[in-house]
Write a structure and sequence with these properties.
The structure is a homodimer.
Chain A (H helix, E strand, L loop, with lengths): L5 E7 L23 H13 L4 E5 L13 H5 L13 H7 L4 E7 L5 H14 L4 E6 L4 H6 L11 H18 L6 E4 L4 E3 L9 E2 L4 E2 L14 E4 L4 H10 L2 E4 L4 H17 L8 E10 L3 H12 L4 H12 L18 H11 L7 H8 L7 E4 L1 H15 L3 E5 L5 H16 L12 H6 L17 H19 L1
Parallel strand pairs in A: 1-2, 1-13, 2-3, 3-4, 4-9, 9-10, 10-11, 11-12, 11-13
Antiparallel strand pairs in A: 5-6, 7-8
Helix pairs in contact in A: 1-3, 4-6, 7-8, 10-12, 13-14
Chain lengths: 471, 471
């Protein structure tokens, strides 16, 4: 197989992740998100389908732009309630052997020193199958609720994130040398103290003088995910991310994005083919075209108009509650809405607010692909061939059915065509994805923090030099 | 059975928790702490032995008082490396049906808003079997490493803790009313918005205006553990704790402590019999007295002198590295050492530094009980009868052997005597322990935060009154 299509499952530790209202569908089990069995069963399904991983999104906060209140978010369980994603890593690891486990965590809510320990622990527990989805943004309500414990609001979020990952690299890559832990019962040495280093980090936002708390985990730094689509988000992804998650309404939008991001990765001195890009999609399929279309019609009847616009308003910052369902977007004199709708729709259609709600009501901001296994497989292959994307980040309409349908129908069809992997590669998640060993490659910025004593000398020299300039 | 003896396993997500050097014993498996199988196997053993729970201690930081460095802590893996305890809750829950899971978390390192979500998530995942061991103290090195993200150093730790638990009660008890979540597919209502409340918390240390992120977990507030022995620690435990963990060298010290704490609990308006007190102990046993004694001698030969004094120095703040092993404590002119040794030894012996290291080298600061099942059972029953303690918090010398020996030898002997439970009670951890329902009782301070709208009115009225006083 030259270059297989890659699948990732997009989920969240909540009810009806991006399909507001579909929790009421009799087949939907997302309300069982509190049960570990639910997650373990889903993980086994995805591993049977040779998915690269399951990616657990997260928000801390809630959607309150629509009609200026939280009413509809709560009413439709629109990502509220929401449980901690990190605690899903161990149970998913226990239920599977290969599946990657992507956990979202923000650089805004926890200190990097304690977060480094959480992340390393998850990597230990999963024997190296964890990815970290780095997010910087947060809902206004989240920032308010973590009050003084949170970061200052006026901080540049990506500037904080850059220093945050630097602290993590120092702790996870630099603090504990290879071979530090020997567990030598004869000589009664567990760890060689001279091979464990204080990181002496003194930055603009964080000060961490000491040692990392954890011994090196299988991947040291887990696989780095990123989903930022803004300018600084793209720059951050090009510098750090190994898996990038995007949402694009059309092939032409996607193609331009992929070309741009690969060029930026190359400009950062990294191999642009060793960063995987997954585009958001929702797939509704069945044995036949007709059955798939009927399934789609059935699903659509459960979409919550208010729930859908709750998300859209939260994501765009535009309160769609001020319009009637029949209002046509072209006739609304707000540039922001035009640009938002253009982004999601690819600009080739005029939309009513109701159509907008229907569109976003299944699987969020990605295209919804409905049809027979053959037709869907044609489309997926076409998207990959035409856009240079590596694969798909698959949202569900109804869970676990959406994923089970894909594993039952799409995966075998693509495998038959030689376009999808039939088994996992051995090793850690990073090895399964890229095949070059468990650690970040030498071209990655993390490599610069491995010889921490050299970093400390460099930083010690840099400080007086800067002072001289200022004097 | 009138009043059974209760067992709790004392552990930590690290190597050789309180038995420095015993990691080198060929039977010790604590170096496998990174593996979930290790924890699941241990949990199954404890459940077979009808232990109330497993209590995962934690430190963020490391021991650097001994000889003024971290050398020996690192060399002997003395609670460094150490992994995140919270991520053990789900795997232990998956391996067991009844065992309580006590997770330690500090009120100093994470904001209560995000911590409330973590705790509720663990309670959901375990179907209500989680306890939270509330700690306020931390190692100096931990405070330094969480830099500006941590709380201000000069804050009164128990004052912060009191407000921290208040925020948790408001979020976990008050924000989501009973019956808020209905998941009514017919009416398309997941949650009644009018039954979910903003908590509007505005305190000295935290400001949390909004909603809790999680729907009510089986216990709402998990079972509250506390282990503070200082004056403010005792007051906090008397007000809030449901399980209290103590360390006492002699029956007379323990008896006085238990009487004092029960009196304080009663004074706080709570039922002193519905708070369980577990005292630290290490048990070394085998089929016969002789085998047990030989096992003890074997274990002792692995104690690390430096590792043991690393802990003792860290706990007491006294650098024992300044003395020779043969120095006799009585001859050292430092009151602090006398008082520390008196505390751990009960004041009835004169100690050399080497004896001190030996004493603390197995199981930390609790007594070590060595003998046949009959002899140990006699001692345990005598301690309970003479001191009014509810049970024992059992540290290991070598793990899992120390626990397996107890389950194989002590538990059946005590059961034969009708002094130990033979099965678990049904329900959540709180119901298994106290039998009165899954939630904190009405006499607990958490009850005052259940009607959150009343709390908000009360607080709104209180503020002007206070202002008037100040004016």
């Amino acid at each position: 197989m030259a270059r297989p299509i890659r699948f990732n499952a997009f989920d969240m530790n909540c009810v009806g992740h991006q399909s507001p209202g579909l929790w009421a569908h009799p087949r939907d089990k997302s309300w069982k998100y509190k049960d570990l069995d639910y997650w373990q069963d889903l993980a086994r399904t995805l591993e049977r389908g040779v998915f690269d991983g399951i990616f657990i999104a997260d928000v801390i906060g809630y959607y309150d732009v629509y009609k200026g209140s939280n009413y509809h978010a709560i009413h439709q369980a629109a990502q509220l309630p929401v449980n901690d994603p990190m605690q899903l890593a161990a149970p998913i690891a226990l239920a599977t052997e290969h599946l990657g486990i992507g956990i979202t965590a923000s650089t805004s809510f926890e200190h990097p020193y304690t977060f480094a320990r959480r992340l390393a622990t998850a990597d230990h527990h999963s024997k190296g199958r964890v990815g970290w989805n780095i997010v910087t943004s947060y809902l206004e309500s989240g920032a308010k609720n973590v009050g003084q414990g949170g970061l200052r609001r006026h901080d540049n979020r990506y500037e904080v994130a850059a220093e945050y990952v630097e602290v993590l690299y120092k702790l996870l890559e630099g603090s504990w040398e290879e071979g530090a832990v020997v567990r030598d019962g004869e000589k009664r040495i567990f760890t060689h103290p001279e091979k464990v280093h204080e990181i002496a980090h003194k930055g603009k936002f964080f000060e961490v003088p000491g040692y990392g708390l954890t011994e090196p985990s299988p991947q040291r730094t887990p696989v780095l995910y990123q989903a930022g689509a803004s300018g600084p988000g793209k720059a951050f992804a090009a510098a750090h991310a190994e898996c990038i998650f995007v949402a694009a309404p059309t092939k032409s939008v996607l193609k331009a994005y992929v070309a741009d991001i690969r060029q930026r990765i190359a400009a950062a001195g990294r191999d642009p083919k060793k960063v995987f890009i997954y585009t958001l999609i929702t797939i509704i399929t069945d044995e036949t075209e007709d059955k798939a279309q009927k399934k789609f019609e059935d699903y659509k009847s459960y979409v919550s108009y208010d729930g859908s616009l709750t998300f859209m308003s939260g994501w765009s910052g535009i309160d769609f509650g001020q319009f009637a369902p029949t209002d046509v977007v072209e006739r609304i004199e707000t540039n922001a809405i035009h640009s938002f709708v253009e982004h999601i729709a690819g600009g080739d259609k005029s939309w009513t607010i109701d159509e907008l709600a229907q569109f976003g009501g299944i699987g969020g901001m990605g295209p919804v692909c409905v049809g027979s296994p053959e037709r869907i497989s044609d489309i997926l292959q076409e998207w990959v061939a035409d856009t240079d994307v590596d694969g798909f980040n698959i949202a569900y309409a109804v869970t676990p059915d959406s994923f089970e349908d894909i594993v039952a129908h799409i995966v075998p069809e693509l495998q038959k065509r030689g376009a999808y992997p039939t088994e996992y590669k051995p090793g850690t998640l990073r090895e399964k994805l890229f095949g070059d060993g468990p650690y970040l490659p030498k071209t990655h910025p993390a490599d610069g923090y491995r010889d921490i004593e050299a970093v400390k000398r460099r930083e010690a020299e840099a400080v007086p030099a800067l002072k001289t300039v200022g004097a």
